[in-house]
Fold this protein.
Amino acid sequence: MSALLQVENLQAWYGESHVLHGVDLTVAEGETICILGRNGMGKTTTLRAIMGILRKRSGRIEFAGRDMMALPLHHTARAGLGFVPEERGIFASLSVEENLMLPPRVAPGGMSVEEIYALFPNLHERRLSPGTKLSGGEQQMLAMARILRTGARCLLLDEPTEGLAPVIIQAIGEVLQKLKSRGMTVVLVEQNFRFAAKVADRFYLMDHGRMTAEFPVAELPAQMDMLHRELGV
Amino acid sequence: MSAKSETVAPDHVAAHPRAGQVRLALVAVALAGLLAAPMFLYPIFLMKLLAFALFASAFNLLLGYTGLLSFGHAAFFGGAAYFTAHAVKVWGWPPEAGILLGVAGAAALGLVIGAIAIRRQGIYFAMITLALSQMFFFFCLQAPFTHGEDGIQSVPRGHLFGLIDLSQTLNMYYFVLAVFVIGLLVIRRFVNSPFGMILKSIRENEQRAISLGYSVQRYKLGAFVMSAALAGLAGGVKALIFQFATLTDVTWQMSGEVILMTLLGGIGTLLGPIVGAGLVVSLQNFLATSDFPVTIITGVVFMICVLLFRRGLVGEFFASKIGKRLGFRAES
Amino acid sequence: MVMIFGIPVQALMGQLLVGLINGSFYALLSLGLAVIFGLLRVINFAHGAQYMLGAFTALLLLTVGGINYWLALLLAPVIVGVLAAVVERTMLSRLYKLDHLYGLLFTFGLALAIEGTFRYFFGASGKPYAPPAQLTGAVNLGFMFLPIYRGWVVLASLAICIAVWLLIEKTKLGAYLRAATENPVLVQAFGVNVPLLLTLTYALGAGLAGFAGVLAAPVYQVSPLMGSNLIIIVFAVVVVGGMGSILGAIVTGYMLGVVEGLTKVFYPEASNIVIFVIMAIVLILRPAGLFGKEA
């Protein structure tokens, strides 16, 4: 499988602060990879740098054979990358349905609105409510659903399970499994590695702005001691 | 004004060890120049320059040091001019008393306008000061004592302390110079005082100042009143210089002019407003005889300054190598 | 003669109409300001100058091009909007990352430059602009004569205000605008060309001002100074209404216009400043404004 997303020696800065010190990442089409790491190690920054939200960066980012570094921000989505931020980013002055329909279609093959409402019946029920009147779990579903409609090939998911109840977490896991079966590529940032173990094919461990370990999900039990040590859980 | 994303990489150019003495020498030279100036330049022009330099410096107290943009400072400047003119002409007060009345009136006006405007921040604050000073403009337009469009004319300069005849141009000039220097010293003292330090911290991070326990609103109001009072000092003096007070002095165009002087010269520097005022007053003087529209130039200079030149002339100088060697520092 | 509170009905209705007309312009202009401020976070001081530009464009279209009022009503806002878009693209957009006060100062300079230019070429006096033939004359309502053009002003401004409100609240483009107001970076990350949206929004606001200018030409005469004193009153209207809501801007505009008109009847000396006084009171009692969302 050729790499859909290839990141080499990615460096990034917040103002004067050097936060990514050369991140290397490869994701094959259809894979779900998960970036683990403690708070503040640069996981969210990596996603934001790949997406192009963080502009002060250097290195190589190649997606579907295209150089992403040169692209202005509003072209990255059109290239096929979808971003679901940690804070979910549901707009308060838009209804649930307006939130869902907001991101424009970037490629054919996205889920239709009927399919999305079938997958997320709660959203259909509340489609006319203001977006932020939804519960945290529902907002997370909405944040993911709206990207699924666009036809994006690769989903950048920042801590989807943070602060959610176990029942919702399970539901999100099911959604991700469904997406996997449809061939979606996912880059997941998670602290909850028990959740990640159920959906990810491969893991990266991030420490102080660079990748310090990489292993397939099969090796996860063997790595548990190391993970407990590194992640302090 | 805090510049959010304008982090300039700190060039570490150390000040020359003798820098302090050089700066002192420069100040002495400037002072000597001002003392000798009437021999080379038309005294009325010089006095106008000094009055506006004081006005701009007073304005900068609020903008450069406290971070508040007032779009209505003409109310204090022009208002004080009216108060002083009326006191000296109609009530026959001596000039020093007239000027003090102007200052007090401006301070009172500043208290009222400031108390209302401070309830909002940033752009809203600016808009409110504009609207309230426009209200004062309409009041001046209609109030009998201002004589509306005619203004208060033939204001006598009187005798300072009953001794010095201010109708003698040279006497008047040195009086204005003295007031100017005193005003600057007051500003400098204020800026470096504990009160001034707290204002600086409010400008840089208001939330932090609040969390440290400072009643930020009171400090802002204090700075506002101080700035208004000093603007009033400039206005009162101006009424005596030109011997009239007019509506022009309370218009929003005048408020805009003082902003331009400060922006052009350099916000957050003591020298900036003086330089800016000097430039603008000289330019107006130069253009007054020609047919050229001053408003267009003012507007264009404003736009250029905001786009390219935010530190102002003095600010740019301070940031240059020479400025750094001389140990000059800008506030913002 | 019927009297209300000691004032003849004719006079009262007459002033109410004047108030409603002034209110129409307050509403249109504060709507434009609110739309621009919502997304760009810039107080467009040049709004008054753009209003004046609209009026002058209509005048010049007529005197130079023989283009009538109805076409001018369509063309002038577009022309003003395009000019504004150019200014936004080349200059204003560079200021977004700075303290918002710079935007105010820049547009202030722009206003001075525009007004100065027109004053230089056209002088300060007002030039007449005749209302179109279809709208001349008056209608007898019984208690007063209603000049048809005046009635048109109120209806047209109401219609445009409602149209803009519908655009923002009910359309997809409006959804982009509302979302970008909340989180422009995220909207851009979705693939929406937010910089273009910003340009269009500024152009829309300026176009609204230009439209108001054409509407105003037959009522107030066309003069380079027509915008500058008006803009300060509009600022006060906007502070009273609060910047958060489009609807608030519209309602407050009409309301304050009517209040000003009524003040002229009962207490004429205060009519110049009544809006400022109301602003001061609102600021003391409810700093966020009547409809404002932010503290």
